[in-house]
Automatic annotation (TrEMBL):
Lineage: Eukaryota, Metazoa, Chordata, Craniata, Vertebrata
Compartment(s) of residence: Membrane
UniProt-listed CDD domains: PLAT_RAB6IP1, RUN1_DENND5A
Name by which UniProt lists this protein: DENN domain-containing protein 5A
GO biological process: retrograde transport, endosome to Golgi
Length: 1265
């Protein structure tokens, strides 16, 4: 071997590529993927990027980053969690250039854990938004029957569909990502770009690289060494030679057929026949030969590629001449509109059948549903000549390998109804390519074609039942064979099937040379008049054919592939000038003619089987027995210490300075003379490669001469120079707006997922404020472009003032459509509709800003107005309303101004509308000292005597910035409006009453609080009684809230904000132990709930401080720690008698009495036990002696919070588990009486010891501990 690997004739691989998630740009929705955003976020796709490729470029194969990026990950990034299947998937693809040359790609897609907190947070935000939207859809009472099913998100088929479950449970099952308990994984792709297709070898290379990444042990060498080896030190085997090179964990063998054999093909044809069956394969083959539109349809990219490559390979000696995109990226779906023949592959989502796929053209379409083993044929498709005998011969070949030719056939003509759904046989389709059903079932199928085939078999005396199946590869294979048995079998099946197909064309066109019309003029004239000239005597050829062949042959002779084949024949007079396929075909034709000694005019319909299979098979076996060359083994590279570091589960960062350049000397490539390939072989291969490329390009140029339409030059359409300059300004502003909104959304989503999962977090970070300020600057520049007369420092605020002035002068100008008045207060159980909706008014929001004395300048007012509009999700709507006053805009702006370019203005407003997808608190968190009015409504139950309530209620609203103190609520209205300094985002509400009057029992459904400036409305669910002698006897409760979604009929406001964690509802929080309220959770579910609650707290403290949410929500909110421990204590509690309600607190008090008496008796085991008992009893006494009127459930909540704060919970669980009181009050099957489960619970609770938990004052108010 020499150092000549830098030439295109010698390198096995041109590039190594890594595609995946660019954490710097973050999550970018794949706008061109055609994804339905009603799908759950884990089912959506996001933009992927080429992260790296080595080397940077090679001159003979320029790197096409766009094509490689699209085809490595055709539907962009995919996300999974730890419960989803994350098996690596291999697929190959092909890049066809404009000159017809091809490059092959082989990609392995696997999943890596997402380490970016921003990405995880963005996914959490998307899930909250999606869940909120689906929750609203499923709870819409006006939805007709069946609509819920139609709107349900698409779910992988591996997950069961819950038809009878409650809507919220269904949503939780469908949308399973929770940042506090799930691990997020994202797809990453490693890829090899090669000049020739060696999918089996490349698959092994990539899988061994992935195995090295996923293995717990580091690879023998850094992966850079193996990648460098495959790029620069593994040569491309010449024709007729075999090569062995080293992967990470084992040798890899590939071979290349000689110039006298069929062209290189390394895809498994047996798999195609397994998927479709022999008859369907032949029908598809016929459609391809007749250059019909062919659309392959499958969930699996590799199936699309395998079927497409197999069909085109079986066409030998002809080649597909039209659009060829085996894997159609989602961004190129418009290709399906092409009014030309094509062979394309479209990925299915695994849900929709053929009837739901809307295709532009179907009259001449062959639709192949690979996964469902189904082919839908065009009407009037002619039969391939000798179809029955052909099927019989292929079937015998397959049976000789122990394979069935049946597949799972669902064929259809053009008018047949599509049979949707998977075949039952797909269940056993564990691995593509194996079939176990016998041939008898295929032959006995009620099918006219098969019946005729069966009759033919009987006439010929052939018994398929007596066919000898080939011995197992391991028994007849030479022990020296150096490739996998499975791979060798694939090659054997391939060569058998391909030789049978090639023999058909050899028989069919044995005399074709006689009918080729050689040009009488010179070559240049022939090329010039090519389209008007005939190159084949079709009439004479057809007149010599058997009549059954005519329907097919008459159409086939008119195809582009046949014309190109004849053109190639005309251009190549000498045998050395012929391209490979033509040379091989002609040699076979010559052999047939010599053996049969036939004259050109003698034709017969007698079917002649293939006879040269054994020779071709022997050549393959000889190459894998005797390896012609062993490539240089991977070795350590000249890398710095520390480079190539191994981290399990993560593909390493490769060293570009090492991989971007090949060897400069022959240090690693010197080999002894016997090991070198002959220079003549290399030179011949190189010349053959170049000649074929040039010849093919020459033929294509000749055929397309005079038919290519030139694109008009843009300069011919350009306006005047001034207008053009302004137009560039407009385009630049629009582009900047698009980029800024995208950037802000990604940044916001990265934070908001944390906020909404753990309570609202302060977003006064420097980066977000900088982005919002940058947006405000952009708005000012847009409003400044093309101004007639500048007025004030802020063009935006000036425009707003002009608008306000015009509306105030107009009678009724401040009514609709400026805002929406409340018509009638609707009484509803939802709570949010218990208060009138706010006015939606541009001018009202201006007045809010004008009333803030702290803001002095016009620029400051404009920015505050923008912030308020963004927080209210009204920015796009307000600006649209502002610009709808066309006369005012014309008065203020020149014609070329951005605001007077209608199309760009609409796009600008559309980009701003995307801010409605997330929650901003950019006004609330910046203006922290302003006075804000709040409106509070207490919603009580009217069904259970709420109107007879005589006590005096009160509330205390708390936010991130402050709390209000006790506010008395009028008993007759149960609502209050008050003004106080900005509370920030609201977190909790304390509510209660003074227990006065004759009827002081109050069932409260919820409390609703609204910020009257921003419109943010919070709902604090309760669902509990307040009063002595009812429920748990509590006179006050602490409620955790959720941010409600504003309901609007306007499409611009259709934003579904995900709810925060909230107070557990009545049915969940009613922890009275009675026969009617036994918990239904089993021990496994309870353990999972505790684990998730603890995990949420752990993750809370592992996040940066500015990204942490409210700890109160993790402790007391829905599915928080308090709720989880309630489930522990409720499990197995003995049923009370005489309908007496027993609470967890009752158990704790009895245990306290026991411990105190045990201490007095000095019957204590050890000092540790005494210390823990004293702590427990001290906390119990402190809580019982508090002046607050909290009930038993409230006391339990307080004990859990204090125990978590002081790291005592695990000690208390151990005490209670050993307490005799527990043995008396629990069933034998209770969790508290299962020692192993209790020990597991203790270990989980011990994880809280390392965290410093600080409690909100509202949780421990009145407890002096």
């Amino acid at each position: 071997m020499t150092t000549g690997f830098s030439s295109c004739s010698c390198r096995f691989a041109d590039y190594f590529v890594i595609c995946g998630l660019d954490t710097e740009s973050g999550l970018e929705p794949d706008e061109l993927s055609g994804e339905n955003f009603e799908q759950s976020p884990l089912r959506r796709t996001f933009k992927s990027k080429v992260l790296a490729h080595y080397p940077e470029n090679v001159e003979w194969n320029p790197f096409d980053q766009d094509a490689v990026g699209m085809l490595c990950m055709p539907k962009g990034l995919a996300f999974r969690t730890q419960v989803d299947c994350r098996e690596p998937q291999f697929h190959s693809y092909i890049i066809t250039r404009e000159d017809g040359s091809r490059t092959y790609g082989f990609a392995l897609t696997f999943f890596e854990e997402v380490t970016s907190k921003q990405i995880c947070s963005a996914m959490q935000t998307l899930y909250h938004m999606h869940n909120a939207e689906q929750y609203d859809i499923l709870h819409t009472p006006t939805s007709p029957p069946g609509l819920e099913e139609l709107r349900r998100p698409h779910i992988s088929q591996t997950r069961p569909v819950l038809h009878a479950a409650p809507a919220i449970s269904r949503l939780q099952r469908f949308n399973s990502y929770d940042i506090s308990r799930d691990t997020l994984y994202v797809s990453k792709c490693i890829c090899l770009i090669t000049p020739m297709a060696f999918p089996q070898a490349c698959r092994k290379v990539l899988k061994q690289l992935h195995q090295a990444v996923s293995s717990p042990l580091p690879p023998p060498l850094p992966l850079d060494s193996f990648i460098y080896n495959i790029l620069y030190e593994v040569p491309l085997p010449p024709s007729g030679r075999s090569l062995k090179f080293s992967g990470v964990y084992g040798p890899i063998v590939c071979q290349r057929p000689s110039t006298s054999e069929l062209p290189l093909f390394d895809f498994p044809i047996g798999e195609v026949i397994h998927l479709l069956g022999v008859e369907n394969v032949l029908q598809l083959f016929t459609c391809a030969l007749l250059e019909m539109q062919i659309l392959l349809y499958s969930q699996h990219y590799q199936r699309l590629m395998t079927v497409a490559e197999s069909i085109t390979a079986l066409m030998f000696p002809f080649q597909w001449q039209h659009v060829y995109v085996p894997i159609l990226p989602a961004s190129l779906l418009h290709f399906l509109d092409a009014p030309v023949p094509y062979l394309m592959g479209l990925q299915s989502n695994g849900q929709d059948d053929r009837t739901k796929l809307e295709l532009p053209q179907e009259a001449n379409l062959c639709f192949v549903d690979i996964d469902n083993h189904f082919i839908e044929l065009p009407e009037e498709l002619p039969q391939f000549p000798n179809k029955l005998e052909f099927i019989q011969e292929i079937s015998e070949v397959l049976m000789s390998f122990g394979l069935s030719p049946e597949g799972n056939i669902h064929s259809s003509d053009g008018q047949a109804r599509y049979r949707g759904g998977r075949s039952v046989d797909m269940v056993s389709d564990k691995r593509n390519g194996n079939l176990s059903s016998p041939l008898n079932s295929y032959l006995l199928r009620e099918n006219e074609t098969i019946a005729r085939l069966q009759a033919l078999v009987k006439r010929t005396g052939v018994s398929l039942e007596k066919l000898e199946v080939k011995e197992d590869a391991s028994s007849n294979k030479d022990s020296r064979v150096q490739c996998d048995e499975e791979e060798l079998k694939m090659h054997q099946i391939n060569i058998h099937v391909r030789e049978v197909f090639a023999n058909r064309f050899t028989q069919m066109f044995a005399d074709y040379e006689v009918f080729v019309i050689q040009p009488s003029q010179d070559k240049e004239s022939w090329f010039t008049n090519r389209d008007q000239m005939q190159n084949f005597d079709k009439a004479s050829f057809l007149s010599d054919q058997p009549e059954p062949y005519l329907p097919f042959l008459s159409r086939f002779l008119e195809t582009q592939m046949f014309a190109s084949f004849i053109d190639s024949k005309i251009l190549c007079h000498d045998d050395e000038d012929k391209e490979h396929t033509l040379r091989v075909f002609d040699s076979r034709v010559d052999k047939i003619r010599m053996l049969n000694v036939r004259t050109p005019t003698l034709r017969t319909s007698m079917y002649q089987k293939c006879t040269n299979i054994e020779k071709a098979e022997k050549a393959i076996e000889m190459r894998v027995i005797k390896i012609d060359h062993t490539a240089l083994h991977p070795h350590l590279l000249d890398m710095k210490i520390g480079q190539g570091r191994y981290e399990q589960g993560f593909f390493p960062r490769l060293q570009s300075e090492v991989l971007s350049t090949g060897p400069t000397t022959n240090k690693w490539t010197k080999r002894s003379a016997p090991a070198q390939w002959r220079r003549r072989d290399r030179q011949k291969q190189h010349a053959e490669h170049l000649d074929n490329d040039q010849r093919e390009k020459y033929i294509q140029e000749a055929r397309n001469l005079g038919t290519t339409i030139r694109q008009p030059k843009l300069s011919n359409l350009s306006p005047s120079v001034i207008a053009q300059t302004n137009w560039k300004f407009v385009e630049g502003l629009l582009k900047e707006c698009r980029n800024k909104t995208k950037r802000m959304l990604v940044e916001k989503m990265g934070r908001e997922a944390v906020e909404l999962g753990h309570g609202e977090v302060s977003i006064t970070g420097v980066e977000e404020n900088t982005l919002i300020a940058s947006l405000c600057d952009l708005l000012e520049r847009i409003w400044s472009h093309g101004l007639q007369v500048k007025q004030g420092k802020s063009a935006l605020w000036s425009h707003l003032l002009h608008y306000q002035e015009s509306k105030e002068k107009t009678p009724g100008g401040l009514g609709p459509p400026g805002f929406i008045h409340d018509v009638e207060r609707r009484k509803s159980d939802s709570g949010i509709s218990a208060m009138p909706p706010l006015k939606v008014s541009l001018i009202q929001d201006m007045r809010h800003i004008q009333n803030i004395s702290e803001i002095k300048t016009d620029v400051g007012k404009a920015r505050a107005w923008v912030r308020l509009s963004m927080e209210k999700k009204l920015l796009s709507r307000h600006l649209k309303q502002l610009l709808s006053e066309h006369e005012l805009t014309k008065k203020l702006y020149k014609r070329y101004a951005f605001l007077r370019c209608d199309d760009e203005k609409e796009q600008f407003l559309y980009h701003l509308l995307s801010f409605n997808a997330v929650d901003y608190f950019c006004f609330t968190n910046v203006f922290t000292t302003i006075m804000i009015p709040y409106h509070v409504v207490v919603v009580s139950s009217k069904k259970l005597g709420g109107s007879m309530f005589t006590a005096n209620p009160w509330v205390c609203v708390a936010g991130e910035l402050a709390e209000t103190g006790v506010l008395q609520v009028p008993r007759n209205t149960l609502e209050i409006t008050f003004e106080c300094q900005n509370l920030g985002k609201l977190t909790t509400v304390q509510m209660g009453h003074d227990n006065s009057g004759l009827y002081a029992k109050w069932l409260v459904e919820c409390v609703v609080v609204r910020n009257e400036i921003t419109g943010h409305t919070y709902k604090f669910p309760c669902g509990r009684w307040l009063g002595k002698g009812v429920d748990d006897g509590s006179l006050e409760r602490i409620l955790v809230g959720e941010l409600m979604t504003p309901s609007s009929e306007n499409d611009e406001r259709m934003c579904r904000t995900p709810p925060m964690q909230q107070s557990p509802g009545m049915m969940r929080r009613f922890v009275t132990i009675s026969p009617n309220s036994k918990p239904k959770l089993n021990t496994g579910q309870i353990q999972e709930g505790v684990g998730e609650a603890i995990n949420g707290i752990v993750k809370h403290f592992h996040k940066p401080e500015k990204e942490r949410g409210s700890l109160t929500l993790l402790l007391c909110g829905e599915y928080g720690l308090v709720w989880a421990l309630e489930q522990v204590f409720q499990h197995g509690f003995k049923s009370p008698r005489l309908f007496k309600n027993i609470f967890i607190w009752d158990l704790l008090e009895k245990s306290q009495v026991y411990f105190e008496s045990a201490e007095q008796r000095e019957a204590t085991p050890d000092e540790n036990w005494q210390t823990r008992v004293r702590h427990f009893c001290r906390f119990m006494r402190a809580i019982n002696n508090t002046s607050r009127n909290i009930g038993k459930d409230g006391k339990f909540q307080m004990l859990v919070c204090l125990g978590a704060r002081d790291h005592l919970l695990h000690h208390w669980i151990a005490l209670l588990a050993d307490c005799p009181i527990t043995a008396q009050m629990y069933e034998d099957t209770a969790l508290m009486k299962d020692l192993s489960l209790v020990n597991s619970l203790i270990r989980v609770l011990q994880t809280l010891q390392e965290f410093n938990i600080t409690l909100e004052a509202s949780l421990v108010k009145g407890v002096g501990i």
